[in-house]
Amino acid sequence: MCCLSKEKIMRVTTDVDTLRSEIRDKSVRVIDVRREEDYKKNHIPTSVNLPLATLLSDDAPERVVKLVNNLGIDDETSVVVYDDTFGALASRVAWTLEYLGHSDVSLLELTYGQWNSLGLETDTKVPSITSKNHSIKLHPEIMATVDYLEKAKEKKDVILLDNRERLNFLEQHIPGAVNIPYRTLGTSEKILRSKEEMKRLLENRGIKPDAEIITYCGSVGTLSGLAYYALKSVNFPNVKLYVRSFKEWKNLNKPIDKQENAHYWDLSAE
Amino acid sequence: MTISNLKQTSPDSKLPRVNWAKIEEADNFAKTVKLYRQGKIDHDNFRRFRLQHGAYGTRMTDDYAMVRIKIPAGEIYPTQLEKIAQLSETFSIGSAHISTRQNIQLHWVVLEDVSEIMRGLTEVGLTSREACGNTVRNVMCSPLAGVCSTEEFDVTPYAIATAKFLLRNPLNQNLPRKFKFNFTCCEKHGMARIVDVGLIPQIRELDGKKQRGFKIFLGGGLGNKSFVGHQLEDFTPEDDVLYTSIAVLRIFDRMGDRKNMARNRMRYLVDEMGWEKFQNLVLKERAIVRATQSVIVKLDVDDTPTEIKRPITISDTDGKPTPEGYSRWIKTSTFKQKQDGYNSVFINLEAGDITANHLHALAKICREFSAEGFARNGFSQDIVFRWIQESDLPRLYSRLIEVGLANPGSLTMASPIGCSGTTSCNLALTNSHRLAKEIQRKFLELKLDEDDDLRDSTIKISGCPNSCGQHEIATIGFYGGGGRVGKDMYPLYQMSLGGRSDGDAMLGVNCMRVPAKRIIPVILKIIESFKKNKKSEDTLSSWINRIVRGNENSEIKSVNDLKQILSPHIVPPTKEEDADFYLDYGSDKNYHTITGKGECAA
Fold this sequence. Notes:
The complex is a heterodimer of chains A (270) and B (602). Chain A has two domains: 2-138, Rhodanese-like domain (Oxidized Rhodanese, domain 1), CATH 3.40.250.10; 141-267, Rhodanese-like domain (Oxidized Rhodanese, domain 1, 3-Layer(aba) Sandwich). By secondary structure, chain A is of the alpha/beta class. In chain A, helix 6 (88-100) crosses helix 11. Chain A has helices at 2-10, 16-25, 36-41, 52-56, 61-70, 88-100, 112-117, 146-152, 166-171, 195-204, 223-233, 245-251; strands at residues 13-14, 29-32, 48-49, 79-82, 105-108, 158-162, 178-179, 212-216, 239-241. Chain A has twelve helices and nine strands. Chain B has four domains: 11-122, Alpha-Beta Complex (Sulfite Reductase Hemoprotein, domain 2), CATH 3.90.480; 140-292, Sulfite Reductase Hemoprotein, domain 1; 326-402, Alpha-Beta Plaits (2-Layer Sandwich); 417-582, Sulfite Reductase Hemoprotein, domain 1, CATH 3.30.413. Chain B is built from 15 helices and 21 strands. In chain B, strands 6, 7, 8, 9, 10 and 11 form a six-stranded mixed β-sheet that branches. In chain B, strands 1-2-5-4-14 form a five-stranded antiparallel β-sheet. In chain B, strands 3-15-16-13-12 form a five-stranded antiparallel β-sheet. At the A-B interface, helix 9 and helix 10 of A face helix 1, helix 3, strand 5, strand 14 and helix 12 of B.
């Protein structure tokens, strides 16, 4: 039993079959992070709704813990999060729980859209929830603030990952960052690539597990949240999310790099 | 099987007829990049290797590459379009670029990710091998081959067989310079005279029996100095096509200039030696090749006719009104096939750029509408669906409107060619790519695509003198450069007139230098002068043709006369009068020429 629970803690994504059996066993709390109106239309049976916007409107731990309590989650609850945005929004919610000190949280391996297209069961019922009591044991080692980032990124064994799309990266990025667009992380069927593929990709790019990795994206740490879990899925031990991301960096007038003397935007057919 | 293992597939997808891929090459590429980064392979050797595998350098950086995916004979299948869509989102900029040589290019790819693209391509049978470097590049074939009413026979199987014979063949791994084949359907639609080896099908009767063969043109090509190819002999029987190709490659390999990069395409060898001498050499070499092959080497021509099956129609348009713009689109973007009741549809893309979503949409539409089950990419940065039932055209048009790909004008002057220019190329001096898009938008806004007088004219733009935009075979062609007022620079283009690549192929005649921001008014002024002086049967192209050949007798008799009329439009304003004049398209910084090392000749 002890080994089993340990394995559970290591779980980054939960596959469809496992989730369905856990739902049957009532041994899981499923969080749907889509907008309330979407959730109300239908959702994965027994899931509760925590729209990402609600969480982000104030993600101070004291408030987050209240939200978590109201969803019937305590320190021991096994939590699975899903979205319909290639896993990025779910990642940001999962990461927030982890930061709060919740160890047993994972991402559904696919999106709600894919769940639907597989013809799996959905529900419109909103479960009644008994409020619980979650502790606050913050994990600062998975978060990067701007001050931390500024100092850390000068170190040799720290790699800064930018998970925005290529053209945005070329246009402006934090000096020294390496670009792995969020699309690289998943496939058309799963929110994350297979471990083997992910390892090969990171190895090709010279991103090694013994480095400290800080991920960031455009504004609130969603795309980079997915990258955080992508790295965790291949057992990178030291990954941090720069939650306030490029938006804060830019607002603070920190230095920015640009790929100069090329008009790459004109290659886009968007 | 658990549900999570289920994959959605499209059972109605036709499988590619040739697998061009080799998975080992992806692994090898990844390994070689690592060795290069570790300093174990020097820059020059790595560059040669990289180009051999179809990864081209990128403007002002060593960190990124452009991956050029070959589409031999232009045949591209729905699954391949989808894979390229996915790869462009994953590793590139979310758009792909359709080239003028039936390649599809992914730009701004991190060098370390190139091997992942190769890996993805192997899943759908595609390769980028020998798409760059000193090799035989993608073997081209007219997108109308097999459906063209003026062709003698379908050359597609010959183009594919040639590509199969040459890909990874030791014969062409280290040529003095790149080498290009073009199979054309007929005299009207081709580029046979402006490549190293160009072929046009013909049939002759010998002792009452019909025999297939070709007109073969050698030593043509566009570039810093361009040449029109020479016809080798009246008739080359089909059995001699491969021997001729081998003979020409062997001569070029042996005698081509390996030192002077600026003059080492085969056309310079032909020019220096003189055509007759070169022609004799080829004929002799061919006799030797034929005599010394230990086995009879033949092109593996798969003449099995493509299965033509009308896809099952799910809905019909009965009772629905024809969508707006339909007749304009039909007129300017479709081609009646020689097969009764079928049409080919040319999808108009801006300078060949297409988003991943659009590629997905085209794959779907192709499955749904094309009776041959695959698409082609053409010679003009476009995608072509063939074997479309005439009665399906309104529904197809509605679908294109839905996905945003229904722009008219792809078979008209309103669809200019623009090479990648300063969007990604090291050699570029101007943003030719954006200029092509700007001209297209203006032409469509003015509905010039509907003008029959302009229909057979073309506009082609290169960002430097090196002709990737094929400006020399355009009715109105441009190549980029820089101009100067005092110490201020501005982008400009050298304009040439009267180029063409058909049976009367000739290179455009230089006319004048036109500032980038004055190109559109100058083109419109040319059209206005044409309208004023044209004879009743004239098209813009025939009128310009007479002018450049000195056969015109109206008020504009020569290129010089035309220059006089246009010159008021090209006077540079001061910076205070018009600051925009000094900026290139797509740029908010004052123009100055910046180039890196090119790899066309590497």
